[in-house]
Design brief:
By secondary structure, the protein is an alpha+beta fold. The protein folds into two domains: about 5-230, no CATH class; about 240-375, no CATH class. About 35% of the residues lie in helices and about 25% in strands. The strands form four sheets. It has an eight-stranded mixed β-sheet with strand order 3-2-7-8-9-10-1-11, sandwiched between helices. It has a three-stranded antiparallel β-sheet with strand order 6-13-12, with no helix packed on it.
């Protein structure tokens, strides 16, 4: 095996892939069914994968359902993203005793393998790499977790009702930055996976599996399935200069309309695979002799997120939603040379007020056009 090879493995081969990765010292993280959702967690074996499960997604809605086949990856993004394993939701960063001397913090991550990373989430890992792993002061916790990460990507053939990765240029197919990439196929010919080798590490792992070369027809069939998925996206961003649109719409009355519906609960930032903001909390024991500092995820929807002496900078829900959307789709370019949105649709599915990011941007575009027409 070598990078660039394309082979076929069967369903048993996928289970064996989990075993091989574990035998090679990886903690394998992948999708599994729990709490009425498909979540990401450690896999002990391939039998834990969500075979035969699909999802129904819409604004404010996420439901599991049984499929008529045993496909493993025929579901769209769930409530959790791979971010939680690279940028911990909560971690201790400092501890002191009565002498006030800092104690060493044990933060040695286990070498991990991510199984089932879709195009949108592969893009989000790359974005987090620029945000947390780049610059003059990279986040040591993130870079340690990202180091030696083994990625088994999955080309998406079953987009969900809130997916819009095509319009963000992140899917449904994967193109780079993976060790192995799978395309699942279930038909009269059986249940199989087209495997593309993306790295030397991927080639070494694949060499321990029973595989056969993929023929030309199987390659064409797999690529056609991914191409067809691109035509079945549930959503799309409007075809406009979104960066300029949100910049020029900062005084739009539409922000007030969104604020009348938004609960400022922060769900969208918690499920977003690229939101990275944190805050710190200092705690002590009852004696006051020991103290700890913890870092945890935070959200720009929290009232005290921008708190300074005298009060919060953004006191209204309108200003906080505008900040989130404007940063995600606009000023993120100024900081990190890309959009902060990958089109996974999680913020739409997990919004209890059913706010649809793509619909709000489309409305801003409509209002901007109406204003331009009125000025002519």
């Amino acid at each position: 095996m070598m990078p660039g090879d394309t082979v076929i493995i069967d369903r048993a081969g996928l289970d064996r892939l989990v075993d091989v990765l574990r035998e090679n010292g990886y903690r394998v993280i992948g999708p599994q069914v729990r709490d009425s959702a498909i979540v990401l967690d450690e896999l002990d074996s391939g039998t834990q994968l969500p075979a035969g499960w699909g999802v129904e997604t819409a604004p404010g809605r996420y439901r599991l359902h049984r499929r008529d086949d045993d496909t493993v990856f025929a579901h769209s993004a769930g409530p959790g993203s791979w971010k939680q394993f690279l940028h911990a939701p909560r971690r201790k960063v400092l501890e002191t005793g009565p002498d006030l001397e800092p104690k060493p913090i044990e933060d040695v991550p286990v070498r991990s393998a991510f199984l089932g990373v879709r195009g949108c989430d592969l893009a989000s890992i790359a974005i987090l790499g620029r945000v947390l792993g780049g610059g003059a002061h990279p986040d040591a916790s993130f870079t340690a977790r990202r180091k030696d990460l083994f990625i088994v990507a999955v080309n998406c053939t079953e987009p969900g009702g809130v997916c819009f990765c095509v319009s963000m240029g992140t899917g449904p197919g994967v193109t780079a930055a993976y060790d192995l990439a799978l395309t699942e196929c279930v038909d009269a010919g059986g249940h199989r996976f087209l495997v593309e080798v993306g790295s030397e590490d991927g080639a070494h792992v694949l060499a321990e599996l029973t595989a056969r070369p993929a023929d030309a027809e199987e390659i064409v069939q797999a690529r056609a399935a991914v191409s067809a998925a691109a035509d079945r996206m549930g959503r799309a961003m409007p075809d406009v200069d979104i960066r300029a649109l949100v910049r020029d719409s900062r005084e739009s009355p539409h922000w007030q309309d969104v604020a009348s519906r938004c609960l400022t609960c922060g769900n969208c930032t918690m499920v977003c695979p690229t939101c990275f903001c944190t805050t710190t909390e200092d705690v002590t024991d009852l004696t006051g002799d020991h103290a700890q500092r913890w870092e945890r995820w935070s959200s720009c929807f929290e009232l005290d997120f921008s708190f300074t002496h005298g009060g919060s900078v953004r006191q209204s829900g309108e200003s906080r939603y505008r900040q989130w959307l404007s940063h995600k789709l606009g000023t993120w370019y100024d900081q990190f040379d890309s959009s902060g949105c990958v089109g996974c649709g999680r913020c739409i599915a997990w919004c209890p007020a059913e706010i649809d990011l793509t619909a709000e941007v489309a409305r801003l575009a409509e209002l901007a056009k109406e204003a331009d027409d009125a000025d002519r």
